[in-house]
Amino acid sequence: MERPPCLSAKAAKVIIVLFHTVGLIGLMLPATHVLFLKIVPFHLLLMLLVVFFNHKYIDERFLGFVILIYVLGFFAEWIGVHKGWLFGDYVYGETLGINVFEIPLTIGINWFLLIYSAGVTMQRLRIKSNWARIILGALVLVLLDMQIEPVAVRFDYWHWADSIVPMKNYVSWFLVSGLMLWIFEQFKFKKQSWVGPILLGVQFVFFGVLNLM
């Protein structure tokens, strides 16, 4: 049975902006830097709950979408780390939390947050073509990854062989994101609030500022 969101859009936006701001300050201050790196997994869990409980009409279909994107994201990273077919030659550090098969359990959460935020953003832009929304959304996520990569290496999210981010990473990001955004389109969710776009925009600011440190 469908049920309306448990968290209002206003409250969700406040939580997203507030916690990213606090996290940004905490990571920038030497006295709190180590502590805030340790709570990165909990920050991702909080954002998951915020997005989840703000979604319009939580039902079995939405739960299926969350689980599907989580599993696909985790599996894509497993292929990347263990087979090298996606992204490139890289290994995960300790910042993202507990690893299973050398992949952080939180990485699937991160993929869901990115795909949902980008999918809803394209939805809110009222682009009529499904393929245009998918391609533009995937390009936006590649641009975000370009902001994330330098921060991720510096903060022990993951590390690249020879400390070089290969072009293969960005190509794979586009393809994997495109596939997941295609899946988002197939679920045909009703028009969502601006919470997803706010989260996406805040992440651009968050990682952009950290890159200036």
Automatic annotation (TrEMBL):
The keyword Zinc does not apply. The chain crosses the membrane at residues 12-29, 35-55, 62-81, 101-119, 131-150, 170-187, 194-212. The keyword Protein transport does not apply. PANTHER family: SLL0814 PROTEIN. Keywords: Membrane, Transmembrane, Transmembrane helix. This is Carotenoid biosynthesis protein. It comes from the Bacteria. It comes from Mucilaginibacter jinjuensis.
